[in-house]
Design a protein that fits this description.
single chain; alpha/beta; seven-stranded mixed beta sheet; 9 helices; globular
Length: about 260
């Protein structure tokens, strides 16, 4: 029996491994593959293959210990810095990075990425390339203006943020505030890739029901503008999944750049 929707990711966290199993596995019972794997990976492959987004540093600011969204990025950046708000996510990511027993198996996503690129014969090399590029996994604090204080990182060429803002924002003002803080990590003209779910009120992980902020495409467009971004591309797809794990209506993929 699922509990009432009172838990909040920043305060309560969730079972990181269970989150991956429920939303990103190849299990046909979850029915979420089209929206949580295929849609973002297809758009990321297209975005990076156009050759406009590349450089030395990519920062990943995403919820949970997911890595599938980095399969395309690792060909275009020398270093990937992964920032997390929860210790449990960092532990799960390091288990994957060290190929430890019990780590989540991303083989199906690796093959999906290779098929999307049209390079299915080389699909087993991509995960190792991400491991090599993602040398830094660090915790950050959203309550600080410099979210990685006391460290100061070089400004990133690009940032990817997947589903995180959905789960860490209680109010719409929080969403825009966090966008501004993320922007401080980015070079002027640098690119911001945002992946989220529209019109969502909850996500379920195990027996826990967690808050999700309910917003629409128009709100995101205005929020990005307020935070100093210009949208270059926006793709919105109607929900394909049949599942009571979450109640989103659409999935969203946005590419924007920071104003100079």
């Amino acid at each position: 029996m699922v509990s009432s929707p009172t838990k909040f990711y920043l305060e309560d966290g969730f079972d990181s491994k269970q989150f991956l199993e429920q939303y990103f596995s190849d299990n046909p019972k979850t029915n979420l593959r089209a929206d949580f794997l295929e849609f973002p990976m297809k758009n990321l492959t297209k975005t990076f293959s156009e050759g406009q987004i590349k450089g030395d540093i990519l920062i990943d600011l995403s919820v949970g210990p997911m890595v599938h969204h980095l399969f395309s990025a690792c060909d275009y950046f020398k270093h990937i810095i992964i920032l997390k708000v929860r210790d449990r996510c960092i532990i799960e990511l390091k288990r994957w990075a060290d190929s430890q027993t019990g780590m989540f198996d991303w083989g199906h996503a690796e093959k999906l990425h290779a098929d999307t690129e049209g390079k299915s014969e080389n699909f087993q090399k991509k995960e190792e390339k991400v491991r090599s590029a993602a040398q830094h996994v660090m915790k950050f604090d959203l309550e600080k203006e410099n979210i990685i204080e006391p460290m100061v990182l070089p400004k990133a060429d690009a940032i990817i943020s997947a589903l995180l803002l959905d789960m860490i924002s209680k109010e719409k003002e929080d969403y825009v505030k966090y966008l501004r803080r993320f922007s401080k990590l980015l070079k002027p003209g640098g690119h911001f890739i945002l992946i989220g779910d529209l019109e969502t009120t909850y996500y379920t992980v195990g027996k826990d029901k967690l808050h999700a902020m309910n917003y629409d495409e128009d709100f995101v467009r205005k929020g990005l503008d307020e935070a100093g971004f210009v949208i270059d591309r926006c793709e919105v797809k109607e929900r394909a999944a049949v599942s009571d794990l979450t109640d989103y209506k659409h999935v969203m993929f946005i590419v924007a750049h920071k104003k100079m």
